[in-house]
Amino acid sequence: MPKLLTVVAQMHAQPGKEEALRQVLLTLIEPTRKEEGCVQYDLHEENGQPGHFVFYENWRSKEALDLLLASPHFTAILPRLAELCSRPAEIADYTRIA
Fold first, then answer.
1. Rounded to an integer, what distance in angstroms lies between the CA atom of residue 58 and that of residue 7?
2. 43-75 burial code (b ≥16 CB/10 A, e <16)
3. CA gap 48, 57 in Å, rounded
4. What's the rounded Cα separation, in Å, for the pair 89 and 52?
5. Which of 32, 77, 89, 98 has most Cβ atoms within 10 angstroms of its Cβ?
6. Any bridge partners for residue 43, and if so which?
7. How many CB atoms lie within 10 A of CB 7?
């Protein structure tokens, strides 16, 4: 089983901006899934908590993730995230062991 870098990123919308944040986050899905080294890139919304979004991602390497973070489609949304989120994103990364 190959080692994967797993990323869990949580974002919380400002009240009243849940749908706007959802739409911005959805723009990341298609181009990110095409990135070299992307194994899985899924967006979730917490049941009962509209506006609490979680990305669950798997990458072949840290270098592949770094390419995403520098990509035009990712960097273009950063100002919008600052406007729409109630707090900074919570990001944790893990290494799959089994």
1. 6
2. bebeeeeebbbebebbbeeeeebebbeeeeebe
3. 22
4. 11
5. 32
6. 55
7. 18
What is the spatial distance between Cα 47 and Cα 63, in angstroms, rounded to a whole number? 33
Q: What is the pLDDT of residue 86?
A: 98
Residue 88 DSSP SS3: coil
pTM confidence score: 0.92
Please give the structure tokens belonging to residue 4.
């994967």
Cβ 94 vs Cβ 59: under 8 Å: no
At 58, the amino acid letter reads N
Asked whether the predicted pLDDT for residue 35 surpasses 80, the reply is yes
